[in-house]
Amino acid sequence: MFNNAAILGVGLLGASFSLALKKHGLCGNVCGYGRSRANLERAKEMGIIDSFAADPSDACSDADLVLLAAPVGSFAELVKRASSSLKNGAVVTDVGSVKGRLVYDLEDSVPSGVHFVGAHPIAGSDRSGITYADPELFRDALCIITPSHRTEPAALKAVMAVWNSFGSKVMTMDPDQHDRVYAAVSHLPHIIAYAMVNAVSDIDRSFFSYCGQGFRDMTRIAASSPEIWTDISLLNRENIREMIAVFRENLDRMDAHLKASDAEALKKHFVRASSSRKRIGQD
Amino acid sequence: MFNNAAILGVGLLGASFSLALKKHGLCGNVCGYGRSRANLERAKEMGIIDSFAADPSDACSDADLVLLAAPVGSFAELVKRASSSLKNGAVVTDVGSVKGRLVYDLEDSVPSGVHFVGAHPIAGSDRSGITYADPELFRDALCIITPSHRTEPAALKAVMAVWNSFGSKVMTMDPDQHDRVYAAVSHLPHIIAYAMVNAVSDIDRSFFSYCGQGFRDMTRIAASSPEIWTDISLLNRENIREMIAVFRENLDRMDAHLKASDAEALKKHFVRASSSRKRIGQD
After folding, report:
1. Among all residues of chain B, which has the CA nearest to that of A194?
2. Can you tell me the ipTM of this complex?
3. Per-domain residue ranges for chain B?
């Protein structure tokens, strides 16, 4: 499908993507680029990438497919640095958690004849790094592709075919709508989990040793990479702040019912949440 | 160890306690009481209880051990109704998530010669009901026993021996301290998970279908029983409201950093939360 791919950012997602490309025979040679030479050397030893380059433009010079898999805040700079060497007809895609304006900016910054197609596999976790890389990471996971009116149809088709080959459930969504949806179901939950853990720290750090499975599950995402989540939070900050406001209204309502010892009103909120959550299912 | 036990409230915890008593040979006969006759009949068919009674006082008339395992808001009433039939020397204990003043109140309301010892196994989940009853539910789980200065030493020893037999990690804690600790690491997280799910409902219910594992893990406890959690929330409302205030300060700080696009300040909060959460471990 592709002769050469370049993975810019060889972490959990970039490495898993590379392994999946190889497993499904979609690409001959994969060249990696990243900030840590030690990590690139290890990725090569582990058979995740075939070679690596000291510069994004060197990594991309032969690539038919370029994957942006570093923290989203660095995408613009990576494309800028790779730009001069991008081949005519190359497809640039990504695994970033933010789309919206970033998609339009990247479309603007790739050279004419190079096609950007945004993608967001819903397969991240609190884990990061190539140690957990897995060619099956994306199987059965949602992958949201975010074409715009400028997206080249053949490039879109190629990117969708890659994710379909990986066994993902592929959907398309408008880039701006994507950012609203994921502000609500992913970015806000991360902010809240971080705030929850810090609140317990503020109260008494020794309390952590008494926590049960509920607290562990609820705060698992607070172990996620601070660097990745700082980038995501800032790039999607307007949507996230809107969601924080809606969340805060809900919390304030419950707090008011607690203050008033209003059992019936409180229970109504719990019933509503419980039935919504049960409809999502357990896994 | 005991000839007869009474389980007042045959749900997930009461049924699992009964099965564990039987499995470890700690009790001859277990009599159940609960609001739903159909549930009691099913519990008897499943071998969870040996018999059941239509009234708490009938259930307790022969009991050496009485377990309060209904929603905590009903404990006072249950003890009042059972009081006249409680045997001299009987031990009354519970599996409730709130202690504090409730412990002192129950100590006051059991007849002279009957001993109350509070206990809180950290083994609940979003599941409820006897379908999930399991004699091994409490193995390796924390169980917090909350003696007061009035607790009878032999009764305390007997209750601790029961939980040790079940394979729990048994600890003692002051009843008021218990309520502060669990307001922070259990009650607040439940309130937040309920508010999180309702916030997404308010924004757009269709967004639920795009959620990933992070959202599922984070909101799993929002599927918990509204009845149980209304009782817990109101009984421990002062501590919970204090924790909500600390949480809100943390959320507001992050929101301010988002507003100011202050990457460094935001990242500091994320780093602090991430390292705290990593120290707790993953399971």
Report:
1. B273
2. 0.93
3. 2-174, 177-280
